[in-house]
Amino acid sequence: MTEKIEDFRSGYVAVIGRPNVGKSxxxxxxxxxxxxxxxxxxxxxxxxxxxxxxxxxxxYIFVDTPGFQTKHSSELLDRMNKSVKSSxxxxxxxxxxxxxxxxxxxxxxxxxxxxxxxxxxxxxxNKTDExxxxxxxxxLIQESMKKFAFADVVPVSAEKNHQLDVLLQVIRKFLPEGDxxxxxxxxxxxxxxxxxxxxxxxxxxxxxGDELPYGVAVMIDKWEENDQGARIxxxxxxxxxxxxxxxxxxxxxxxxxxxxxxxxxxxxMLGKKVYLEVWVRVRKGWGDDAAVLKSLGYE
Length: 299
Ligand SMILES: Nc1nc2c(ncn2[C@@H]2O[C@H](COP(=O)(O)OP(=O)(O)OP(=O)(O)O)[C@@H](O)[C@H]2O)c(=O)[nH]1
Ligand SMILES: [Mg+2]
Known about the structure:
Largest sheet: 6 strands, mixed
Radius of gyration: 20 Å
Structural class: alpha/beta
CATH topology of the largest domain: Rossmann fold
Shape: globular
CATH superfamily of the largest domain: P-loop containing nucleotide triphosphate hydrolases
Binding site for GTP: 17-24, 64-68, 126-129
Low-confidence stretches: none
CATH class of the largest domain: Alpha Beta
Bound molecules: guanosine-5'-triphosphate, magnesium ion
Domain Era-type G: 9-177
Mean pLDDT: 93
Number of helices: 10
Helix content: 25-40%
Membrane topology: Peripheral membrane protein
InterPro entries: G_ERA_dom, GTP-bd, GTPase_Era-like, KH_dom-like_a/b, KH_dom_type_2, KH_sf_prok-type, P-loop_NTPase, Small_GTP-bd
Domain KH type-2: 208-284
Strand content: 15-25%
Number of domains: 2
Order of helices and strands: HEHEEHEHEHEHHEEHHEH
């Protein structure tokens, strides 16, 4: 028994990469719970979000980060990039994620954030289900090793749960010996309130056309909860008057769909019935307004 405790490891693992490579999907798959929202659109994640996995012999505290990007600029995007950089300090290991289709210039930008002599960076080549693994992966591993002295390279598919056990074993080597930092049943550092707002934002991201989601933020106005159920009132904030109509949709159909899907997920998360009311409000240029960003909880 004593031996087992000595063997236990725990520590922090930052997951970084350009937008859309599957960082949040990977963390959700590793943790086995939905801690971070995902979508096929880039720049889905806006905050640093912790996802905790506790196993027999280790506790992994994953830090999901916004996709690092250098193309556009706004107060929000600058903050997102800053949070990527700061998440790199004080972690025991870093998992950098790229796609199986190969290196892109945006991936190289991410690489530049890492100290040259870092010895704790693991490369995860994600979405192996999308390529012919046998032909593509080996040359890609070789190419990757030339770009940076990765401690290890692991091809994975976050969506198909492929090779995630291998990735965990590789990461474990970098965790220091030590006790659990979180209780067994804790799987995120975020409150149900934050997660509910994120779930609503995820549905907006998934249901709205290409440009619109980036101008959307969600605020929880009221949260009433007892053993039987929860009553939640939220506001979807958009940048422009013209966006309001799009979010609401014909006879309110779009907003109803966003609310319905969000209610289902929030109800599953809380394990109880949920009444959800979502309103839409215009707040021009909220993405560049420091006060609004602060009130929305962006660091
Ligand atoms: N085929 C396939 N798709 C994947 C896999 N992992 C993630 N995806 C998809 O890739 C898209 C982006 O996933 P996210 O997890 O939101 O990516 P992200 O890196 O967190 O993106 P940002 O938060 O915007 O930086 C989603 O449509 C996922 O379903 C995978 O292993 N295989
Ligand atoms: Mg993400």
